[in-house]
Amino acid sequence: MADHLAAVDPPPALVLCSTALRARDTLEPLRDRLPGTTDVRLEGELYGAPAAALLARLRRVGETVGTALVVGHNPGLEDLARLLAGDGDPALLGRLRAKFPTGALATVSWSGPWADLGSRPAALDAYVVPADLIPVAE
Q1: Which residues contact 96 (CB under 8 A, 6 or more apart)?
Q2: Virtual torsion, Cα 82, 10, 25, 70, nearest 10 deg
Q3: Does the reported pTM lie above 0.90?
Q4: Domains and CATH numbers, the chain
Q5: What is the pLDDT of residues 112-126, one digit of tens each?
Q6: d(Cα 121, Cα 39) in Å, to the nearest integer?
Q7: Strands (E), 5-93
Q8: Is residue 105 within 8 Å of residue 4, measured between CB atoms?
Q9: 9-64 pLDDT, tens digit each
């Protein structure tokens, strides 16, 4: 997943990561691949946070931040992704709604200010699960 995230353009300008060991272990392989300008924050309030708390945190992101990545825990992240992603490719939306396993990455785009995030549907631009990144033997 770190290789996949390193290729995402634009890269996250802000990373919000739970202080839990598992979340930090998920972030660690990506850290070296992030631009030096990426602001990485370990935040205890993300540990086990429900979707409403995650959304409230994202609404406090500064308006100069164009992209953010949240590294946290289910069911909060899964519920947040489902809450935000109301538009986009129906196949991707269906996959997201069916299952959001550990290590999944939902990429949503939003054209409004962070403070209004969730007031209308965001577009689900990509949905990747770890199994998608395993090469298929021929």
Answers
A1: 81, 82, 85, 106, 124, 127
A2: -30
A3: yes
A4: 2-129 (3.40.50.1240)
A5: 999 999 999 999 999
A6: 26
A7: 14-18, 39-43, 68-71, 85-88
A8: yes
A9: 899 999 999 999 999 999 999 898 899 999 999 999 999 999 999 999 999 999 99
